[in-house]
Amino acid sequence: MHVVAIAALATSIDAEAPALASDLGLTAYETRLLLAGGMPAIVRRARDGATAVGLAAKLEARGHVVVVCDESDVVPSTAMISMRRLRLGSSGVSVDDREGVTLAFDDVLAFIAARHRHRTETSITTRERKFSASRALISGGLVTTATVRSEAQSATDRREHLLYIFRRGGGNPWILHETGSDWSGLERPLAPTSLENFKLAVRVLRERAPAAVYDERLLSRKATPEHVATTGTAGSRTVKTSSEGGIDLLAHVLAAWIARGRR
Q1: Distance between CA atoms of residues 188 and 178, nearest Å
Q2: What tens digit of pLDDT does each residue of 20-29 get?
Q3: Pick from 133, 111, 194: nearest CA to 160
Q4: Is there a smaller number of Cβ atoms within 10 Å at the N or the C end of the chain?
């Protein structure tokens, strides 16, 4: 699937919405929603590469900054090189669980800060027969029970800060997680919370790779692409919502834009 994304608008959302609506076959209201979530904005997914390139040409003719990428080239965050056990060196950073793998500081193209959101909602419905005084009275004692339906719901919401690290030489990106990471490799006094240690690690990495671009616009997005998966039966249902895949895609779009600018 080929993705067309607007990385930066040359005009206001209201000015672009009618023209984009004509390109996409949508209403101006629908295209405003596409753009209002923040940049970069995914405006089209097309199976045909020529269709994606054609739309990108129209958008660029109106002065917008556009990125076209193949979704199959996007590396999911779960497949990136995790820095949960990072260790700083003089010229790069390594990870204790991957012997011989090093990220050179001068090879860092971009640090892209983001957040993943995972939400799980569970609904369990039970039915049981219970004594019903009203039914017994109405039926003269012939029917003494009724089916009682009850529903129990629970939800968990988890958010985690991450830092995507894209390299000038390409290849598999690296990723730093707020949670589940060992910060002893920073060789700095540890802070009381994982978020404080994460921010410290980000600051240290940026100091060691001053030529790299730092971009945090994904942290301020008003809307995030989310994947929803439902499992279970009518009596027990679980709905999982995750922004992970959508944020992975947006991070790759930003990296492609930054790389193009550096070239």
Answers
A1: 16
A2: 999 999 999 9
A3: 194
A4: C
Answer whether CATH 1.10.10.10 is correct for domain 2-73: no
* CA separation for the pair 16, 61 (Å, rounded): 12
Helices (H), ranges, 68-173: 133-138
pLDDT, tens digit, 9 for 90 and up, residues 155-211: 888 899 999 999 998 889 999 999 999 888 888 878 889 999 999 999 999 999 999
At a CB cut-off of 8 Å and minimum separation 6, what does 242 contact? 116, 117, 118, 119, 226, 227
Can you give the pTM of this predicted structure? 0.84
Q: Which two tokens stand for residue 18?
A: 């009618």
Q: Which two tokens stand for residue 91?
A: 């010229």
Q: Please, what's the b/e burial string for 120-136 (b: 16 or more CB within 10 A of its CB; e: otherwise)?
A: eeebeeeeeeeebeeee
Helix intervals (H) in 79-154 = 133-138
Angle of the 49-61 helix axis to the 13-24 helix axis, nearest 10: 150
Parse the chain into domains and list their residue ranges.
2-73, 77-120+155-262, 125-150
Residue 225 tokens, joined: 């692409």
